[in-house]
Amino acid sequence: MPAFPSDATFTLNATTYSMSNRRPDRNYSYSSSFDNASFTSQIGYERRRQISRRRKRSFTFAYTNITGVYKAAIENFYNSRGGQFEAFEFDLSYAGQSGSIIVRFDGPLTITQIVATDNILTDIYNVNFSLQETFS
Predict the structure, then answer these.
(1) Is the per-residue pLDDT at 88 higher than 70?
(2) Is 125 in contact with 112 (CB distance < 8 Å)?
(3) CA-to-CA distance for 22 and 66, rounded, in angstroms?
(4) Which residues fall within 8 angstroms of residue 127, CB to CB, at 6 or more apart?
(5) Bridge-partner residues for 127, per DSSP?
(6) Which pLDDT tens digit goes with each residue over 41-59?
(7) Rounded to a whole number, what is the distance in angstroms from the first to the last CA of the chain?
(8) Residue 26, pLDDT above cutoff 70
(9) Could you tell me which of 97, 9, 39 has the C-alpha nearest to residue 131?
């Protein structure tokens, strides 16, 4: 099973650039929720049911001012997973926690070009994406 960030790499001129040593510079956001179902009757009574006892975590990462090779590493990894289709392993030490979980991309990969040059090493981009925990 592929893993992020270790499998997010890009090779240019026999040099491999990996996302393992490139942390998000705008930190990351983290949220967690439980899957519940609730029913409210017309007179105001409410009934709740917990669908799963396991919480689902989601992460949002923002990279600003990264070069084109790191953008290409993220974009290649995203395209290899088919966007939101394929799940992969996420190393939680990358987000300051311990362990690893199975996640998928949640939503689009947003890429904004800041500086355009003729060289991929000097192009500057902002990249944002979200990950959603899944249970296989």
Answers:
(1) yes
(2) yes
(3) 9
(4) 62, 63, 66, 70, 71, 74, 75, 109, 110, 111, 112
(5) 63, 111
(6) 888 888 888 777 777 888 8
(7) 12
(8) no
(9) 97
Q: Could you tell me the pTM of the whole model? A: 0.74
CA distances from 67 to 19, 90, 115, 121 (A): 12, 23, 9, 6
Name the one residue in this structure whose structure tokens are 């939503």: 107
Pick from 56, 30, 34: nearest CA to 134: 56
Place of tokens 């790191």: 70
Kindly report the backbone phi and psi dihedral angles of residue 133, in degrees, each rounded to the nearest multiple of 5, phi listed first.
Answer: -70, 140
Spatial CB neighbours of 73, under 8 Å, sequence gap ≥ 6: 8, 9, 10, 17, 18, 19
State CA 7 to chain mean position distance: 13
Cα-based angle 83, 134, 34 (whole degrees, multiple of 5): 130
